[in-house]
């Protein structure tokens, strides 16, 4: 049988498929996101692997009552960064697929290279696959961070077939893909970073992780809104989703989990970017309050629970007269709608009503009527 080709249009934001091009995606409502892609449909070969053979078992598993299944604690690989272990729920689970996203230059590659070096010094084989840098560029960054070990293997490749072969040859305990938007599958005709390429490459990595018990970290690009680029399908396929956040003009970084099948999503880790890489911050309350002035009006300290760790945060408020008819409320570091909701609750339940605005125009008919 001949190979068949099927042309379709796929939304690059949500993965919606259509037989014809449309300006607005019916799935997510985004404009100009429908891209033409060609899907190659190959006929089934005789003697092809069955599902059980792909999973590595000779016999197909049967359904069993949940009460007869024995509970086993997932073995974890501990890193020297306790803040990362906290965000992951206690360490790296073998056979897990972890997605980490963040703004460009925030330190994702630096963090993963440090983790690779730490595990390599613990006699763990680590394969660092870079699709954005050459081997020499990765070596220069490793020299700056001081991450050298014979158990750390570096490979610059974007073809999924060669990546699978490298994993088979090295047999690592940890694999890092930097980044998933640069990797492509030879059997998919669309461009790297498209919905089809990201889906197929992530599915291949997931099969490798689950079949061989290898922990795999995937670096994902983010959009200008701060979400991971591509469809939400990528976040649904992986076991853990980590966001690496930080202010551009500050050296502190925060890593938090928004999805974790092996732990809590309430924990967060705090790091500080220095000359020789990231260093964990053991007492985050100290850095949050180090610039606080003693006895300043309009300032208070609030204790907030982040998972199992209390964090002290300073809240400042400033009130100044305005020349407008209605006062304007602004907020920095917190959602404006949440501030409006909190003020409405205080006005309703506590009786802290805001003062009525005074009109600056003399002889206003509204003021005379009121």
Please name the defining characteristics of this protein.
370 residues, 4 domains, nine-stranded mixed sheet, Rossmann fold, alpha/beta
Explain how this protein is built.
The structure is a single chain. The chain is α/β, with parallel strands linked by helices and 370 residues long. It has four domains: 4-41; 75-282, Rossmann fold (3-Layer(aba) Sandwich), CATH 3.40.50; 285-320, no CATH class; 328-370, no CATH class. The chain has ten helices and 16 strands. The protein has a nine-stranded mixed beta sheet with strand order 8-7-9-10-6-11-12-13-14, with helices on both faces. A three-stranded antiparallel beta sheet has the order 2-1-3, with no helix packed on it. A two-stranded antiparallel sheet has the order 4-5. The longest helix is centred in the middle third of the chain and has 18 residues, at 195-212.
Question: What's this entry about, in short?
Answer:
The protein is α/β, with parallel strands linked by helices.
SSE layout and pairing:
Elements: E1 4-11, E2 17-18, E3 34-41, H1 51-55, E4 76-77, H2 82-88, E5 92-93, E6 97-102, H3 108-121, E7 126-130, H4 135-145, E8 152-156, H5 160-170, E9 174-178, H6 195-212, E10 215-220, H7 233-237, E11 240-246, E12 252-260, E13 268-274, E14 277-280, H8 284-288, E15 299-306, E16 309-316, H9 336-349, H10 365-369
Parallel strand pairs: 6-10, 6-11, 7-8, 7-9, 9-10
Antiparallel strand pairs: 1-2, 1-3, 4-5, 11-12, 12-13, 13-14, 15-16
